[in-house]
Structures are given as C-alpha cells and as structure tokens.
Design brief:
Elements (H helix, E strand, L loop, with lengths): L2 H15 L4 H8 L3 H10 L4 H10 L4 H12 L8 H8 L2 H11 L4 H7 L4 H13 L3 E3 L5 E3 L12 H14 L20 H24 L35
Helix pairs in contact: 1-5, 2-3, 7-9
Length: 248
C-alpha cells in the first residue's frame, strides 16, 4: 500500500474518530455525499482538498501523517508496564536506556560515565531483549523504537522522573539563553483545550524531529535538553480557602 493510500485510509479513520460522517464532510466542502464517497473510493484527493478536510477536523496534515505512522509503524511505540518496572528497578539500566534513546554510542557512554564496558554491553543486551534496540557486531546499536515512542502515561518511568527529578529540574531561575519558562493562565472551552493539546503534541513531535536531525553530531556539539509541556484544569491552591465547598 502506497503512503498516499495509507494517508487517505487514516483520514477515513480520523473522520470516524471525531464523530463525523461523509455527510458532514460533504456539507463542509460544499459537495454531495456521493462526490465525497467517490473521492475516498478513488483516493483522488488533491493537497488542497486534503487540507480542507483536515481543517474541518481541526487537525493539521502533519497530525494526519503522525497518525498514519502510528498505525503502520513496525517498531515499538512503548513498553509494557512490566518492562518499564524492569528498567526503572535498575538505575544504571535506566541511564543506559536514556543514553541509547539519545543516540549515544558505547564509547561515549563509558567515556562519560563510570560504567565498565562489560556491564554496559550487558545492559545493551537487556534492551535488545526488550526489542528497544538491535545489538549489532562490535557492540554497535540500532534503535528499533518508532518515531512516536514514549514512556507510559503515569507509568513507572514517568513517575520516577516526576518524583525524583522535578525539584532538581525547577531549581533554576530560567534566565539563561538556553532556558525558558512560560506560564500562561486563562479560561478555555473544552473544544479550545483540545485544539491547544494537539498543538502541544505537535510541538513535542517537532522537538523529536530536531533530536533526530542532531543525532549525527558529536556529544560536544549536543547538550542534554529537557522540555516539560503540561496542561490541566487547575485552580491556585492559595485561593482554595475562598472557594465555596473548599474542603471538597
């Protein structure tokens, strides 16, 4: 199946996922339902028409491509709960996993950390069994994770970083050239919240794309960079005493 056909199939799935029908799409495009069905059956979408349908669904074409990759990617996009518990239970293994995901080589890891080469290779073999990497001859590593790979939501590894590293992460004035802290607050409708969440997800994908672009650079040319994107319904605890039923 060509990518263009896969993209149209993904668009059909997105329409259904958004609770829309061909009738809704036809009304938005000012076409008949039969014409819309013909567009999908013949896979004859122009780029402009594709963009119009995406706008109707309040997504970008790049979002659609990402969805297509998630549906068709062979590499893993995440680990099981048990696998994450296995990794987080060994701090050294977790460190190696993070380094590997950031394209560190064996030589760079043992040069930078006090980890014996033999033990580092053992950790590589562990990650190979988890299908995160393929351990190649001469202890080279091939990543097997999908572009959308991420730790489980509220899973063991995410919770580890939240509990152990958040205080250290925010122990900064965020006033250096390589730092930024942006806090915004406002009132949003549920529909606007959904739109903004998709923009955050797209921004995170752009970050991943940049890390992939820079993967070929040496360690001296790259800096460990962490971005925290967070959004939630939240009221300042400072003012909770002034709310009705503030004890609930």
């Amino acid at each position: 199946m060509t990518q263009s056909i896969q993209l149209i199939e993904t668009l059909k799935q997105a329409i259904k996922a958004h609770g829309r029908t061909y009738v809704d799409v036809a009304r938005h495009l000012n076409l008949s339902e039969a014409s819309v069905k013909r567009l999908f059956s013949q896979k004859s979408f122009s780029l402009e028409r594709l963009d119009q349908v995406c706008q109707f669904l309040e997504i970008e074409i790049s979002d659609l491509v990402q969805l297509m990759q998630e549906h068709t990617a062979g590499p893993i996009s995440g680990l099981t709960l048990e696998q994450e518990q296995e990794i987080v239970g060994n701090l050294e293994l977790l460190l190696i996993a993070v380094c590997v995901l950031n394209r560190w080589t064996l030589e760079e890891i043992i040069d930078y950390f006090q980890i014996p080469e033999v033990r580092c290779i053992q950790h590589f073999a562990h990650l190979d069994r988890l299908k995160m990497i393929e351990l190649l001859p001469k202890n080279r590593v091939k990543l097997l994770v999908a572009p959308n790979f991420k730790w489980r939501e509220n899973g063991p590894i995410q919770q580890f970083f939240l509990q152990r590293l958040q205080s250290d992460f925010f122990n900064s004035r965020f006033d250096q050239a390589h730092e930024a802290l942006i806090v915004v607050n406002g009132m949003l409708a549920d529909s606007s919240t959904a739109v903004f969440q998709r923009k955050l997800e797209r921004l995170a994908r752009e970050f991943d794309e940049l890390t992939n672009d820079d993967a070929g650079l040496s360690l001296d040319e790259r800096n460990g960079t962490t971005v925290v994107l967070a959004m939630r319904h939240w009221r300042y605890g400072l003012f909770s005493q002034f709310r009705k039923n503030h004890n609930q």
